[in-house]
Amino acid sequence: MKSTAKNEAAVKASFIVAEEIAHASKSFSEGAFLKQCMLKVCEQVCPDQLQTFKNVSLSRNTIVDRVKELAENLTTQLAEETRSYTAFSLAVDESTDNTDTAQLSIFIRGVKSDLSITEELLDVAAMHGTTTGQNIFDAVEKSVLGMEDIVTTVMKTVNFIRARGLNHRQFQQFFLEMGSEHGDVLYHTEVRWLSRSKVLKRFFELRKDIALFMQSKGKLMSELSDPKWMCDFAVLCDITDHLAQLNQKLQGRKQVITQMSDTITAFQRKLDLWMWQVKQDNLVHFPVCQSMSASFPETFSCAQLATKLSWLKTEFDRRFSDFRAQQSGFDIFANPFTTDVCTAPQHLQMELIELQSDSGLRAKFQDATIQDFYRLLPPGLMPQLRLHAARVLSMFGSTYLCEQFFSIMNLNKNKHRSRLTDDNLHAVLRIASAQDLKPDIDTLNMINR
Protein backbone atom coordinates (compact mmCIF):
# COMPACT_ATOMS: atom_id res chain seq x y z
CA MET A 1 0.00 0.00 0.00
CA LYS A 2 1.40 3.40 -0.99
CA SER A 3 2.07 6.06 1.64
CA THR A 4 -0.87 8.29 0.59
CA ALA A 5 -3.29 5.37 0.62
CA LYS A 6 -2.03 4.30 4.04
CA ASN A 7 -2.57 7.80 5.43
CA GLU A 8 -6.10 7.92 4.01
CA ALA A 9 -6.88 4.55 5.55
CA ALA A 10 -5.49 5.70 8.92
CA VAL A 11 -7.65 8.83 8.90
CA LYS A 12 -10.75 6.89 7.86
CA ALA A 13 -10.10 4.37 10.63
CA SER A 14 -9.95 7.17 13.20
CA PHE A 15 -13.36 8.41 12.02
CA ILE A 16 -14.83 4.90 12.23
CA VAL A 17 -13.53 4.38 15.76
CA ALA A 18 -14.73 7.84 16.85
CA GLU A 19 -18.23 7.04 15.58
CA GLU A 20 -18.25 3.75 17.48
CA ILE A 21 -17.09 5.50 20.67
CA ALA A 22 -19.90 8.03 20.34
CA HIS A 23 -22.51 5.34 19.65
CA ALA A 24 -21.36 3.35 22.67
CA SER A 25 -21.36 6.42 24.96
CA LYS A 26 -17.72 5.82 25.83
CA SER A 27 -15.18 8.37 27.01
CA PHE A 28 -13.09 10.10 24.35
CA SER A 29 -9.97 8.74 26.05
CA GLU A 30 -11.11 5.20 25.19
CA GLY A 31 -9.51 5.71 21.78
CA ALA A 32 -6.00 5.55 23.26
CA PHE A 33 -6.86 2.33 25.12
CA LEU A 34 -8.32 0.80 21.95
CA LYS A 35 -5.15 1.64 20.06
CA GLN A 36 -3.05 -0.14 22.69
CA CYS A 37 -5.23 -3.22 22.27
CA MET A 38 -5.01 -3.02 18.48
CA LEU A 39 -1.23 -2.84 18.57
CA LYS A 40 -1.03 -5.84 20.92
CA VAL A 41 -3.24 -7.86 18.57
CA CYS A 42 -1.27 -6.69 15.54
CA GLU A 43 2.00 -7.83 17.09
CA GLN A 44 0.61 -11.35 17.30
CA VAL A 45 -1.50 -11.57 14.15
CA CYS A 46 0.18 -9.37 11.54
CA PRO A 47 3.44 -7.90 12.88
CA ASP A 48 4.41 -6.67 9.42
CA GLN A 49 1.47 -4.21 9.58
CA LEU A 50 2.45 -2.76 12.95
CA GLN A 51 3.50 0.63 11.57
CA THR A 52 0.20 0.94 9.68
CA PHE A 53 -1.71 0.53 12.92
CA LYS A 54 0.60 2.96 14.68
CA ASN A 55 -0.34 5.59 12.09
CA VAL A 56 -3.97 5.53 13.22
CA SER A 57 -4.37 8.48 15.59
CA LEU A 58 -6.81 7.71 18.39
CA SER A 59 -5.72 10.23 21.01
CA ARG A 60 -8.37 11.98 23.06
CA ASN A 61 -7.96 15.22 21.11
CA THR A 62 -8.25 13.39 17.79
CA ILE A 63 -11.42 11.58 18.89
CA VAL A 64 -12.93 14.90 20.04
CA ASP A 65 -12.17 16.49 16.67
CA ARG A 66 -13.51 13.50 14.75
CA VAL A 67 -16.73 13.41 16.77
CA LYS A 68 -17.33 17.11 16.11
CA GLU A 69 -16.73 16.64 12.38
CA LEU A 70 -19.08 13.65 12.26
CA ALA A 71 -21.77 15.64 14.05
CA GLU A 72 -21.34 18.63 11.74
CA ASN A 73 -21.65 16.33 8.74
CA LEU A 74 -24.94 14.96 10.08
CA THR A 75 -26.19 18.51 10.64
CA THR A 76 -25.36 19.42 7.05
CA GLN A 77 -27.08 16.31 5.72
CA LEU A 78 -30.21 17.02 7.75
CA ALA A 79 -30.35 20.64 6.56
CA GLU A 80 -30.22 19.39 2.98
CA GLU A 81 -32.84 16.71 3.59
CA THR A 82 -35.35 19.06 5.22
CA ARG A 83 -35.62 20.95 1.94
CA SER A 84 -37.40 17.95 0.45
CA TYR A 85 -40.03 17.69 3.19
CA THR A 86 -43.64 18.06 2.09
CA ALA A 87 -44.68 18.40 5.73
CA PHE A 88 -42.99 18.20 9.12
CA SER A 89 -43.58 18.51 12.85
CA LEU A 90 -41.39 18.99 15.91
CA ALA A 91 -41.16 17.13 19.23
CA VAL A 92 -39.67 19.17 22.05
CA ASP A 93 -38.80 17.99 25.54
CA GLU A 94 -36.44 18.92 28.37
CA SER A 95 -34.50 17.06 31.01
CA THR A 96 -31.58 17.87 33.29
CA ASP A 97 -28.17 16.26 33.15
CA ASN A 98 -26.16 15.26 36.21
CA THR A 99 -24.90 18.84 36.64
CA ASP A 100 -28.49 20.13 36.82
CA THR A 101 -28.22 21.79 33.43
CA ALA A 102 -31.50 21.66 31.54
CA GLN A 103 -30.97 20.17 28.07
CA LEU A 104 -33.66 20.89 25.49
CA SER A 105 -34.01 18.37 22.65
CA ILE A 106 -35.83 19.14 19.41
CA PHE A 107 -36.61 16.30 17.00
CA ILE A 108 -38.04 16.80 13.53
CA ARG A 109 -40.36 14.33 11.79
CA GLY A 110 -40.52 14.97 8.07
CA VAL A 111 -42.47 13.44 5.21
CA LYS A 112 -40.94 13.46 1.71
CA SER A 113 -42.79 13.60 -1.58
CA ASP A 114 -42.89 9.79 -1.74
CA LEU A 115 -44.55 9.86 1.73
CA SER A 116 -41.57 8.18 3.41
CA ILE A 117 -41.02 9.30 7.00
CA THR A 118 -37.77 10.38 8.65
CA GLU A 119 -37.16 11.30 12.28
CA GLU A 120 -33.94 13.02 13.32
CA LEU A 121 -32.49 15.25 16.01
CA LEU A 122 -32.89 18.82 14.77
CA ASP A 123 -31.14 20.56 17.64
CA VAL A 124 -30.17 20.27 21.29
CA ALA A 125 -29.56 23.26 23.50
CA ALA A 126 -28.37 23.74 27.06
CA MET A 127 -30.99 25.83 28.90
CA HIS A 128 -28.93 27.31 31.72
CA GLY A 129 -31.32 28.60 34.35
CA THR A 130 -34.35 27.78 32.20
CA THR A 131 -36.84 24.92 32.24
CA THR A 132 -39.74 23.94 30.02
CA GLY A 133 -42.98 21.98 30.37
CA GLN A 134 -42.85 18.43 31.73
CA ASN A 135 -43.83 15.17 30.17
CA ILE A 136 -47.57 14.47 30.23
CA PHE A 137 -47.32 11.50 32.52
CA ASP A 138 -45.17 13.39 35.00
CA ALA A 139 -47.92 15.99 35.06
CA VAL A 140 -50.55 13.30 35.56
CA GLU A 141 -48.64 12.09 38.60
CA LYS A 142 -48.43 15.52 40.20
CA SER A 143 -51.87 16.97 39.38
CA VAL A 144 -54.25 14.08 39.49
CA LEU A 145 -53.36 11.18 41.60
CA GLY A 146 -51.91 13.09 44.57
CA MET A 147 -49.90 10.10 45.81
CA GLU A 148 -46.34 11.35 45.65
CA ASP A 149 -45.89 10.71 49.38
CA ILE A 150 -46.42 6.98 48.80
CA VAL A 151 -43.99 6.94 45.88
CA THR A 152 -41.41 8.78 47.99
CA THR A 153 -41.66 6.26 50.83
CA VAL A 154 -41.28 3.30 48.49
CA MET A 155 -38.34 4.81 46.60
CA LYS A 156 -36.47 5.78 49.75
CA THR A 157 -36.77 2.22 51.01
CA VAL A 158 -35.69 0.69 47.70
CA ASN A 159 -32.73 3.04 47.46
CA PHE A 160 -31.71 2.28 51.05
CA ILE A 161 -31.59 -1.41 50.17
CA ARG A 162 -29.79 -0.98 46.86
CA ALA A 163 -27.58 2.09 47.31
CA ARG A 164 -25.50 0.54 50.09
CA GLY A 165 -23.63 -2.51 48.87
CA LEU A 166 -23.61 -4.30 52.25
CA ASN A 167 -27.30 -3.77 52.81
CA HIS A 168 -28.01 -5.05 49.35
CA ARG A 169 -25.98 -8.22 49.86
CA GLN A 170 -27.59 -8.80 53.24
CA PHE A 171 -30.98 -8.28 51.67
CA GLN A 172 -30.31 -10.89 49.00
CA GLN A 173 -29.10 -13.35 51.64
CA PHE A 174 -32.10 -12.48 53.80
CA PHE A 175 -34.43 -13.41 50.96
CA LEU A 176 -32.51 -16.60 50.31
CA GLU A 177 -32.86 -17.69 53.93
CA MET A 178 -36.56 -16.90 53.97
CA GLY A 179 -37.12 -18.88 50.80
CA SER A 180 -38.74 -15.95 49.05
CA GLU A 181 -39.57 -16.45 45.38
CA HIS A 182 -38.05 -13.06 44.62
CA GLY A 183 -34.30 -12.59 44.88
CA ASP A 184 -34.14 -8.82 44.71
CA VAL A 185 -36.06 -5.59 44.30
CA LEU A 186 -35.92 -3.47 41.19
CA TYR A 187 -33.68 -0.43 41.53
CA HIS A 188 -35.00 3.05 40.87
CA THR A 189 -33.50 6.48 41.39
CA GLU A 190 -34.99 9.32 39.39
CA VAL A 191 -36.22 7.99 36.08
CA ARG A 192 -39.57 8.84 34.55
CA TRP A 193 -42.64 8.17 36.63
CA LEU A 194 -44.15 5.34 34.62
CA SER A 195 -40.98 3.30 34.86
CA ARG A 196 -41.76 3.05 38.57
CA SER A 197 -44.68 0.73 37.87
CA LYS A 198 -42.62 -2.46 38.12
CA VAL A 199 -40.83 -1.21 41.22
CA LEU A 200 -44.13 -0.49 42.97
CA LYS A 201 -45.56 -3.88 42.02
CA ARG A 202 -42.45 -5.76 43.18
CA PHE A 203 -42.37 -3.76 46.41
CA PHE A 204 -45.97 -4.73 47.10
CA GLU A 205 -45.24 -8.41 46.49
CA LEU A 206 -42.28 -8.29 48.89
CA ARG A 207 -43.86 -5.99 51.48
CA LYS A 208 -43.72 -8.48 54.38
CA ASP A 209 -40.11 -9.46 53.74
CA ILE A 210 -39.12 -5.81 53.28
CA ALA A 211 -40.78 -4.85 56.57
CA LEU A 212 -38.84 -7.54 58.44
CA PHE A 213 -35.57 -6.61 56.78
CA MET A 214 -35.96 -2.90 57.51
CA GLN A 215 -36.85 -3.78 61.10
CA SER A 216 -33.61 -5.76 61.37
CA LYS A 217 -31.78 -2.58 60.34
CA GLY A 218 -33.50 -0.51 63.00
CA LYS A 219 -35.71 1.25 60.45
CA LEU A 220 -39.31 0.50 61.27
CA MET A 221 -41.77 0.93 58.40
CA SER A 222 -45.02 1.69 60.17
CA GLU A 223 -46.64 2.34 56.78
CA LEU A 224 -46.56 -1.35 55.90
CA SER A 225 -48.74 -2.14 58.91
CA ASP A 226 -51.12 0.77 58.29
CA PRO A 227 -54.24 -0.49 56.45
CA LYS A 228 -55.07 3.00 55.10
CA TRP A 229 -51.55 3.47 53.65
CA MET A 230 -51.55 -0.02 52.18
CA CYS A 231 -54.93 0.50 50.51
CA ASP A 232 -53.71 3.78 48.98
CA PHE A 233 -50.55 1.97 47.86
CA ALA A 234 -52.70 -0.70 46.18
CA VAL A 235 -54.59 1.98 44.24
CA LEU A 236 -51.30 3.48 43.08
CA CYS A 237 -49.91 0.08 42.04
CA ASP A 238 -52.88 -0.80 39.86
CA ILE A 239 -53.28 2.61 38.24
CA THR A 240 -49.60 2.95 37.40
CA ASP A 241 -49.65 -0.55 35.94
CA HIS A 242 -52.50 0.42 33.59
CA LEU A 243 -50.70 3.64 32.65
CA ALA A 244 -47.46 1.77 32.02
CA GLN A 245 -49.25 -0.59 29.64
CA LEU A 246 -50.67 2.41 27.79
CA ASN A 247 -47.27 4.07 27.69
CA GLN A 248 -45.70 0.96 26.20
CA LYS A 249 -48.22 0.95 23.35
CA LEU A 250 -47.38 4.56 22.56
CA GLN A 251 -43.64 3.95 22.31
CA GLY A 252 -41.63 3.23 19.18
CA ARG A 253 -40.38 5.06 16.14
CA LYS A 254 -42.47 6.32 13.22
CA GLN A 255 -45.83 5.48 14.71
CA VAL A 256 -48.81 6.98 12.89
CA ILE A 257 -50.62 9.50 15.07
CA THR A 258 -54.09 8.26 14.09
CA GLN A 259 -53.27 4.83 15.48
CA MET A 260 -51.92 6.43 18.67
CA SER A 261 -55.12 8.46 18.89
CA ASP A 262 -57.11 5.22 18.68
CA THR A 263 -55.00 3.81 21.55
CA ILE A 264 -55.75 6.87 23.69
CA THR A 265 -59.46 6.65 22.85
CA ALA A 266 -59.47 2.98 23.85
CA PHE A 267 -57.86 3.85 27.19
CA GLN A 268 -60.44 6.56 27.85
CA ARG A 269 -63.20 4.06 27.18
CA LYS A 270 -61.50 1.64 29.59
CA LEU A 271 -61.57 4.37 32.23
CA ASP A 272 -65.34 4.67 31.74
CA LEU A 273 -65.75 0.90 32.14
CA TRP A 274 -63.50 0.76 35.21
CA MET A 275 -65.35 3.60 36.93
CA TRP A 276 -68.68 1.88 36.35
CA GLN A 277 -67.38 -1.49 37.57
CA VAL A 278 -65.64 -0.04 40.65
CA LYS A 279 -68.84 1.73 41.66
CA GLN A 280 -70.42 -1.74 41.62
CA ASP A 281 -67.60 -2.97 43.93
CA ASN A 282 -66.15 -4.93 41.00
CA LEU A 283 -62.33 -4.85 41.14
CA VAL A 284 -61.68 -7.45 38.46
CA HIS A 285 -59.24 -5.15 36.59
CA PHE A 286 -57.47 -4.01 39.78
CA PRO A 287 -55.86 -7.14 41.25
CA VAL A 288 -53.76 -5.40 43.92
CA CYS A 289 -56.78 -3.45 45.11
CA GLN A 290 -58.75 -6.67 45.08
CA SER A 291 -56.28 -8.32 47.45
CA MET A 292 -56.31 -5.29 49.80
CA SER A 293 -60.09 -5.16 49.74
CA ALA A 294 -60.15 -8.78 50.85
CA SER A 295 -57.57 -8.15 53.60
CA PHE A 296 -59.05 -4.85 54.85
CA PRO A 297 -62.73 -4.81 53.83
CA GLU A 298 -63.52 -2.08 56.34
CA THR A 299 -60.71 0.17 55.11
CA PHE A 300 -60.52 -0.21 51.35
CA SER A 301 -62.78 2.28 49.59
CA CYS A 302 -64.04 1.57 46.09
CA ALA A 303 -65.46 5.08 46.09
CA GLN A 304 -61.96 6.51 46.55
CA LEU A 305 -60.65 4.43 43.65
CA ALA A 306 -63.55 5.59 41.49
CA THR A 307 -62.71 9.19 42.34
CA LYS A 308 -59.08 8.69 41.32
CA LEU A 309 -60.21 7.18 38.03
CA SER A 310 -62.57 10.08 37.45
CA TRP A 311 -59.75 12.57 38.01
CA LEU A 312 -57.57 10.60 35.65
CA LYS A 313 -60.22 10.62 32.93
CA THR A 314 -60.69 14.37 33.32
CA GLU A 315 -56.95 14.90 32.99
CA PHE A 316 -56.75 12.74 29.87
CA ASP A 317 -59.72 14.52 28.32
CA ARG A 318 -58.05 17.86 28.94
CA ARG A 319 -54.57 16.93 27.83
CA PHE A 320 -55.66 15.11 24.69
CA SER A 321 -58.13 17.78 23.58
CA ASP A 322 -55.81 18.44 20.60
CA PHE A 323 -56.57 14.95 19.34
CA ARG A 324 -60.29 15.73 19.38
CA ALA A 325 -59.68 18.95 17.47
CA GLN A 326 -57.90 16.94 14.76
CA GLN A 327 -60.37 14.06 14.73
CA SER A 328 -62.09 15.05 11.47
CA GLY A 329 -58.78 15.11 9.61
CA PHE A 330 -57.72 11.87 11.28
CA ASP A 331 -60.94 10.14 10.17
CA ILE A 332 -60.45 11.20 6.55
CA PHE A 333 -56.89 9.86 6.65
CA ALA A 334 -57.72 6.57 8.39
CA ASN A 335 -61.06 5.86 6.70
CA PRO A 336 -61.04 7.63 3.31
CA PHE A 337 -63.50 5.19 1.70
CA THR A 338 -66.21 5.61 4.34
CA THR A 339 -65.79 9.26 5.29
CA ASP A 340 -68.73 11.57 4.50
CA VAL A 341 -67.70 13.62 1.48
CA CYS A 342 -70.30 16.29 2.21
CA THR A 343 -68.72 17.17 5.58
CA ALA A 344 -65.12 16.89 4.35
CA PRO A 345 -63.08 20.04 3.62
CA GLN A 346 -64.04 21.36 0.19
CA HIS A 347 -60.55 21.07 -1.26
CA LEU A 348 -60.63 17.30 -0.61
CA GLN A 349 -64.17 16.54 -1.77
CA MET A 350 -63.56 15.93 -5.49
CA GLU A 351 -60.56 13.68 -4.85
CA LEU A 352 -62.43 11.74 -2.15
CA ILE A 353 -65.23 10.99 -4.63
CA GLU A 354 -62.68 9.76 -7.17
CA LEU A 355 -61.01 7.63 -4.51
CA GLN A 356 -64.23 6.10 -3.19
CA SER A 357 -65.27 5.24 -6.75
CA ASP A 358 -62.00 3.43 -7.56
CA SER A 359 -62.55 -0.28 -6.85
CA GLY A 360 -58.88 -1.07 -7.47
CA LEU A 361 -57.69 1.35 -4.80
CA ARG A 362 -60.42 0.12 -2.45
CA ALA A 363 -59.05 -3.41 -2.76
CA LYS A 364 -55.48 -2.20 -2.12
CA PHE A 365 -56.66 -0.29 0.97
CA GLN A 366 -57.70 -3.58 2.55
CA ASP A 367 -54.23 -5.12 2.17
CA ALA A 368 -51.75 -2.25 2.63
CA THR A 369 -50.75 -0.46 5.81
CA ILE A 370 -52.25 2.99 6.05
CA GLN A 371 -48.99 4.82 5.30
CA ASP A 372 -48.16 2.52 2.39
CA PHE A 373 -51.62 2.92 0.88
CA TYR A 374 -51.25 6.65 0.30
CA ARG A 375 -48.06 6.04 -1.67
CA LEU A 376 -50.25 4.21 -4.19
CA LEU A 377 -52.29 7.33 -4.96
CA PRO A 378 -51.45 8.92 -8.31
CA PRO A 379 -49.52 12.10 -7.41
CA GLY A 380 -50.88 14.03 -10.37
CA LEU A 381 -54.50 12.99 -9.93
CA MET A 382 -54.93 13.23 -6.14
CA PRO A 383 -52.40 15.82 -4.94
CA GLN A 384 -54.60 17.22 -2.16
CA LEU A 385 -55.23 13.81 -0.59
CA ARG A 386 -51.51 13.02 -0.73
CA LEU A 387 -50.73 16.38 0.91
CA HIS A 388 -53.34 15.71 3.61
CA ALA A 389 -51.79 12.30 4.22
CA ALA A 390 -48.30 13.85 4.41
CA ARG A 391 -49.46 16.32 7.06
CA VAL A 392 -51.02 13.59 9.19
CA LEU A 393 -48.01 11.29 8.77
CA SER A 394 -45.67 14.10 9.81
CA MET A 395 -47.26 14.49 13.23
CA PHE A 396 -45.40 13.29 16.31
CA GLY A 397 -47.69 11.44 18.65
CA SER A 398 -45.31 11.28 21.62
CA THR A 399 -41.90 12.38 22.88
CA TYR A 400 -40.53 8.83 22.58
CA LEU A 401 -37.40 9.94 20.71
CA CYS A 402 -36.77 12.60 23.34
CA GLU A 403 -37.01 9.99 26.07
CA GLN A 404 -34.48 7.79 24.26
CA PHE A 405 -32.30 10.84 23.77
CA PHE A 406 -32.22 11.66 27.48
CA SER A 407 -31.29 8.08 28.31
CA ILE A 408 -28.29 8.42 25.99
CA MET A 409 -27.49 11.79 27.57
CA ASN A 410 -27.39 10.28 31.04
CA LEU A 411 -25.08 7.52 29.84
CA ASN A 412 -22.66 10.12 28.49
CA LYS A 413 -22.78 12.88 31.08
CA ASN A 414 -22.50 10.75 34.18
CA LYS A 415 -20.63 11.34 37.43
CA HIS A 416 -17.39 10.21 35.79
CA ARG A 417 -17.79 12.66 32.88
CA SER A 418 -19.46 15.59 34.63
CA ARG A 419 -16.98 18.03 33.06
CA LEU A 420 -17.98 17.09 29.52
CA THR A 421 -18.67 20.39 27.74
CA ASP A 422 -22.08 21.09 26.23
CA ASP A 423 -20.58 21.31 22.72
CA ASN A 424 -18.89 17.92 23.01
CA LEU A 425 -21.97 16.39 24.63
CA HIS A 426 -24.22 17.68 21.88
CA ALA A 427 -21.87 16.34 19.19
CA VAL A 428 -21.92 12.87 20.76
CA LEU A 429 -25.70 12.97 21.16
CA ARG A 430 -26.24 13.91 17.53
CA ILE A 431 -24.23 10.87 16.40
CA ALA A 432 -25.71 8.49 18.96
CA SER A 433 -29.31 9.55 18.30
CA ALA A 434 -29.10 9.53 14.47
CA GLN A 435 -31.91 7.42 13.05
CA ASP A 436 -31.74 7.12 9.25
CA LEU A 437 -28.84 9.47 8.55
CA LYS A 438 -25.27 8.15 8.62
CA PRO A 439 -22.10 10.26 8.68
CA ASP A 440 -20.43 10.48 5.28
CA ILE A 441 -17.02 9.29 6.42
CA ASP A 442 -15.62 9.02 2.89
CA THR A 443 -16.28 12.72 2.26
CA LEU A 444 -14.79 13.66 5.62
CA ASN A 445 -11.79 11.50 4.87
CA MET A 446 -11.17 13.35 1.61
CA ILE A 447 -11.32 16.70 3.41
CA ASN A 448 -8.83 15.58 6.07
CA ARG A 449 -6.26 13.81 3.87
Task: Summarize it.
It is built from 22 helices and three strands. The chain is mostly helical and 449 residues long. The protein folds into three domains: 91 residues, no CATH class; 187 residues, no CATH class; 68 residues, no CATH class.
Descriptive key words:
449 residues; mainly alpha; 3 domains; three-stranded antiparallel β-sheet; 22 helices; 3 strands; 62% helix; flat
Describe the structure.
The chain is mainly alpha-helical. It folds into three domains: 77-129 and 397-434, no CATH class; 137-323, no CATH class; 326-393, no CATH class. The protein has helices at 3-23, 30-45, 50-54, 60-82, 136-145, 148-163, 165-178, 197-205, 207-216, 227-250, 257-279, 287-295, 302-319, 321-325, 327-334, 346-356, 359-367, 370-375, 383-393, 400-412, 422-432, 441-448; strands at 85-96, 102-112, 117-127.
Strand order of the largest sheet: 1-2-3
Number of domains: 3
Taking the sheet with the most strands, its summary is: 3 strands, antiparallel
Described by the principal axes of the CA atoms, the overall outline is flat
Helix content: 55-70%
The averaged pLDDT comes out at 83
SS summary, helix count: 22
Give the number of DSSP strands: 3
